[in-house]
C-alpha cells in the first residue's frame, strides 16, 4: 500500500470495548476499505489487554475526551451515561461521532447543535433495528403514526430502572407481561439499555414524543423481538426483527454489524441502501 493511501485512511476510535466495541475493533483490525482503527478508550485498560494484544495493529489507548484528537470518527459504544463525555469533545473538534447509546441523545440533544456549529456530525446507525431507510424516506412526506412493540427475554430486561423503581417481579413470570406503553422518550428513561431502537426509530421518523412503544417481558421468547408499524402518506409498512442476543443479553448481535456496515459505507466504492 502506498503512503498516500495509508495517510488518506479515515481514522476510527472506539469508546467502550464491550459486546459491540470489540466486534467493531476486530472488524477494523481485519480491514475495512479506507478505514483504520487508531485509538480506543476503556475504563480499565488492564482488563482489555488480552483482547488488545490479539489485534494485528495496536491502537492508542486514550482517555475518552482525547479520542477526537486521534480520530476522524469516534464510535460511542459505552453505557448511555458516558455519551456526553465521549461525543462532546469529538464533535467540538469537528469530528463525526457514531452514537449507539442513542437513547442518551434525548437528554443531550444540544450536542446536535454543537456538532452543527463546529462542523461535526452525529451518525446514528440502524443498530438493532430494521428499515430506518424507509422511515427516513417516509418522513420526507407525512408520517401519521409509528407504533412499535418490543418483547424481550427476562435476562434482557433485568435491572431496567422502570422495573426496579416500580418493584416489578419479572423473575418468576410464566406469561408475557406488558411492562410499559407510552412514548419513545419515556421508554428511553425507563429502559436506557433496552430501547435505543425506539429512539433511533423516532429520530428517523416523527420524534420521541409521537413514536409509541410497548415493552413486554416475555419468558416465551429467546430473542429481542421488535415489531414496527408505520402509517404514512407515501406508504404503510410493517417491519419485524428477532435479534439473537450477544454475550450482553440486552444487546442483539446485529447491532455491532450495523455499525460496521455504516463504517464500511464511509469509504466503500459501492454503497447499497440509504
Ligand atoms: N442503538 C442500538 O440499536 C443499540 C444500542 N445499544 C447500546 O450500546 C451501548 C453499548 O452496548 P454493549 O456493547 O452491549 O455494552 P457492554 O456493557 O457490553 O459494553 C460497554 C462497554 O463500555 C465500557 N465503559 C463503561 N464505562 C466506560 C467509561 N467511563 N469509559 C470507557 N468505557 C466505558 C465498559 O467497560 P468495562 O468492560 O470495563 O465494563 C464496556 O466495555 C449501550 O448503551 C447499549 O444500550 C445496545 C444494543 C442496540
Ligand atoms: O435497543 C436496544 O438497546 C437493544 C435492543 O433492543 C436489541 O438489541 O434488540
UniProtKB/TrEMBL annotation:
Residues 16-125 form the Aspartate/homoserine dehydrogenase NAD-binding domain. Keywords: NAD, NADP, Oxidoreductase, Pyridine nucleotide biosynthesis. Its EC number is 1.4.1.21. InterPro entries: Asp/hSer_DH_NAD-bd, Asp_DH, Asp_DH_prok, L-Asp_DH, NAD(P)-bd_dom_sf. The active site is at residue 226. Pathway: Cofactor biosynthesis; NAD(+) biosynthesis; iminoaspartate from L-aspartate (dehydrogenase route): step 1/1. Residues 174-260 form the Aspartate dehydrogenase domain. It comes from the Bacteria. Pfam families: Asp_DH_C, NAD_binding_3. The keyword Oxidoreductase applies. NAD(+) binds at residues 128, 196. It catalyses: L-aspartate + NADP(+) + H2O = oxaloacetate + NH4(+) + NADPH + H(+); L-aspartate + NAD(+) + H2O = oxaloacetate + NH4(+) + NADH + H(+). Belongs to the L-aspartate dehydrogenase family. HAMAP family: NadX. The iminoaspartate product is unstable in aqueous solution and can decompose to oxaloacetate and ammonia. NCBIfam families: PRK13302.1, PRK13303.1-3. Specifically catalyzes the NAD or NADP-dependent dehydrogenation of L-aspartate to iminoaspartate. This is L-aspartate dehydrogenase.
Amino acid at each position: 500500500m502506498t503512503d498516500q493511501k495509508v495517510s488518506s485512511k479515515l481514522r476510527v476510535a472506539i469508546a467502550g470495548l464491550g459486546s459491540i466495541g470489540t466486534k467493531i475493533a476486530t472488524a477494523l483490525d481485519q480491514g475495512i476499505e479506507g478505514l483504520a482503527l487508531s485509538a480506543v478508550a476503556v475504563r480499565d485498560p488492564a482488563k482489555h489487554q488480552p483482547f488488545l494484544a490479539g489485534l494485528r495493529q495496536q491502537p492508542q489507548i486514550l482517555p475518552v475526551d482525547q479520542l477526537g484528537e486521534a480520530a476522524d470518527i469516534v464510535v460511542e459504544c459505552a453505557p448511555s451515561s458516558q455519551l456526553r463525555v465521549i461525543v462532546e469533545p469529538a464533535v467540538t473538534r469537528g469530528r463525526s461521532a457514531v452514537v449507539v447509546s442513542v437513547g442518551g441523545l434525548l437528554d443531550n440533544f444540544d450536542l446536535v447543535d454543537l456538532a452543527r456549529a463546529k462542523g461535526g456530525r452525529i451518525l446514528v446507525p440502524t443498530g438493532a433495528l430494521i428499515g430506518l431507510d424507509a422511515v427516513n424516506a417516509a418522513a420526507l412526506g407525512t408520517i401519521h403514526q409509528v407504533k412499535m412493540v418490543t418483547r424481550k427475554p427476562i435476562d434482557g430486561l433485568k435491572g431496567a430502572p422502570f422495573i426496579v423503581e416500580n418493584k416489578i417481579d419479572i423473575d418468576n413470570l410464566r406469561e408475557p407481561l406488558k411492562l410499559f406503553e407510552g412514548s419513545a422518550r419515556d421508554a428511553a428513561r425507563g429502559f436506557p439499555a433496552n430501547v435505543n431502537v425506539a429512539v433511533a426509530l423516532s429520530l428517523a421518523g416523527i420524534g420521541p414524543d409521537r413514536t409509541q412503544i410497548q415493552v413486554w417481558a416475555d419468558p416465551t421468547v429467546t430473542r429481542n423481538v421488535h415489531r414496527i408499524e408505520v402509517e404514512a402518506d407515501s406508504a404503510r409498512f410493517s417491519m419485524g426483527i428477532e435479534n439473537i442476543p450477544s454475550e450482553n443479553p440486552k444487546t442483539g448481535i446485529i447491532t455491532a454489524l450495523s455499525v460496521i456496515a455504516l463504517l464500511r459505507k464511509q469509504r466503500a466504492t459501492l454503497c447499497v441502501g440509504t
